């Protein structure tokens, strides 16, 4: 099932997307619950009744989780070729331990970074001159858990969406902790919607990114160094994962820092990310106004 958070008539709703018919079927949810977006569905024994369909062209698609309840968990260097390109870049504070990590590298982005597909991503030249893109599959947690075993991990997954882990590389290199370089305002485009766990074969899913139509990343989730069960087991060891938590699973090779010279983003650039079975996340980068 493909599910979107959307607005119509100034009211936030959640509904099932039918792309073939070009419609969205709103779920019968109280406005106070729908305000949270997709988390309003998580934990329910039954899917709410669907209301009359609305044409997709009439609604404004929002991020699946417009404001996560806490930081987005992220995994660094989780595709072999990207691990090597990042280690060569000179911005990798973990490179001394080897290009390919022996355990998942975990960092986070603050909730306020989230913006929907089609929203502008803001570049502030007074803060950073090295803005990069990272196409990523993101996991949405559906069932709470602590000390989750890898073999039980998928029982805790509600579904998946797309994230662009936008990064200020100069800030990432300046500080040994990545939070500031990853958490600039608007640095987490998410969407356009989410799919439920059974909707795609997550062990073999294509992932691509384009900058101004130029193919930059072209990979597959089967090439992850640490798979989703390993990631969930690692994060939940002593830390309780909660419904609605988002985990970005890492980006493949082809990011701007991997080119010589680096191909950083500038105002006017458009980044398009495709993940098979989910959809297309596309955002234009614009200079921030004072």
Fold and architecture overview:
With 290 residues, the protein is mainly beta. It is built from five helices and 19 strands. The strands form three sheets. Strands 1, 2, 3, 4, 5, 6, 7, 8, 11, 12, 14 and 17 form a twelve-stranded mixed beta sheet that branches. The longest helix has 10 residues, at 80-89. It starts with a strand and ends with a strand. This is 2-keto-4-pentenoate hydratase/2-oxohepta-3-ene-1,7-dioic acid hydratase in catechol pathway.
Summarize the structure.
By secondary structure, the chain is mainly β. Helices cover 11% and strands 34% of the residues.
User: Beta fraction of the residues?
Assistant: 25-35%
Regions with pLDDT < 50 over 5+ consecutive residues?
none
Order of helices and strands: EEEHEEEHEEEEEEEHHEEEHEEE
Question: How many domain modules?
Answer: 2
Give the CATH architecture of the largest domain. Alpha-Beta Complex
CATH superfamily grouping of the largest domain? Fumarylacetoacetase-like, C-terminal domain
Shape: globular
CATH overall fold name of the largest domain? Fumarylacetoacetate hydrolase, domain 2
Tally of individual helices: 5
Number of strands: 19
Average residue-wise pLDDT? 94
- CATH C-level of the largest domain: Alpha Beta
Pfam family, one: FAA_hydrolase
InterPro entries: Fumarylacetoacetase-like_C, Fumarylacetoacetase_C_sf
Keywords: Metal-binding
Domain Fumarylacetoacetase-like C-terminal: 72-285
